[in-house]
């Protein structure tokens, strides 16, 4: 299973949004999550919180092999290094590391922002905690559909966007 995640910080409301989207091997959306936390934080902490919530979602759903994809290279590098951290992000990172043994395999990957648009939109539009299966919120569905159409109608898509996620829909 591939799980994309993203975090967002809302300046005007001192809140943090988290978005996650899980896809099967064919790229079909099988689960999604958006949460709003009523505290402001740094962008790095929002991304770390999003990674943690993505792993929690994967564990709740019983997924055993995970590719966790985010667009924050610094965080992905820290997760790959698998070292305990004494910074302010340390407790969140430690929670992530404590969840990893519950899976058969966890691979941390960095993707370009273009490959993380659905997770980003879920994070930016988070107003409450919502979790679903393959029926996405309308603001995310429209992005997924346009992404799908572009990928299938542009002959240069793979050349221009080698890191973008493959997303297939049953139309």
Percent in strands: 15-25%
Give the class-level CATH name. Answer: Alpha Beta
> How many separate domains make up the residues?
1
The strands making up the biggest β-sheet line up spatially as: 5-4-1-2-3-6
GO molecular function: nucleic acid binding; RNA-DNA hybrid ribonuclease activity
Protein name: RNase H type-1 domain-containing protein
Domain RNase H type-1: 4-126
Organism: Buddleja alternifolia
Characterise this structure.
The structure is a single chain. By secondary structure, the protein is of the alpha/beta class. It has one domain (2-160): Ribonuclease H-like superfamily/Ribonuclease H (Nucleotidyltransferase, domain 5), CATH 3.30.420.10. It contains 6 helices and 6 strands. The protein has helices at residues 43-60, 73-81, 90-99, 117-124, 138-153, 157-160, and strands at 2-10, 15-23, 29-37, 65-70, 105-110, 130-132. Strands 5-4-1-2-3-6 form a 6-stranded mixed β-sheet. Helix 1 runs parallel beside helix 3 and helix 4 (117-124) runs antiparallel to helix 5. The longest helix is centred in the first third of the chain and has 18 residues, at 43-60. It is globular. Mean pLDDT is 79; it is low at 150-171.
Task: Report a brief summary of the structure.
The protein is α/β, with parallel strands linked by helices. It contains six helices and six strands.
Defining key terms:
disordered C terminus, 6 strands, globular, single chain, 25% strand, 171 residues, Nucleotidyltransferase, domain 5
């Amino acid at each position: 299973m591939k799980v994309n995640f993203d975090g967002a910080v809302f300046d005007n409301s001192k809140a943090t949004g988290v978005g996650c989207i899980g896809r099967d091997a064919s790229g079909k959306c099988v689960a999604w999550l958006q949460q709003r936390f009523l505290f402001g934080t740094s962008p790095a902490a929002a991304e770390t919180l999003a990674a943690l919530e993505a792993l929690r979602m994967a564990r709740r759903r019983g997924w055993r092999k995970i590719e966790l994809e985010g667009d924050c290279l610094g965080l992905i590098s820290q997760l790959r290094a698998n070292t305990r951290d004494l910074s302010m992000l340390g407790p969140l990172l430690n929670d992530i590391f404590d969840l990893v043994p519950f899976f058969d395999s966890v691979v941390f990957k960095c993707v370009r922002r273009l490959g993380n648009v659905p997770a980003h939109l879920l994070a930016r539009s988070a107003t409450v905690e919502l979790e679903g299966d393959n029926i996405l919120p309308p603001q995310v569905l429209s992005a997924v559909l346009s992404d799908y159409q572009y990928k299938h109608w542009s002959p240069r898509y793979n050349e221009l966007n080698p890191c973008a996620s493959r997303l297939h829909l049953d139309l």
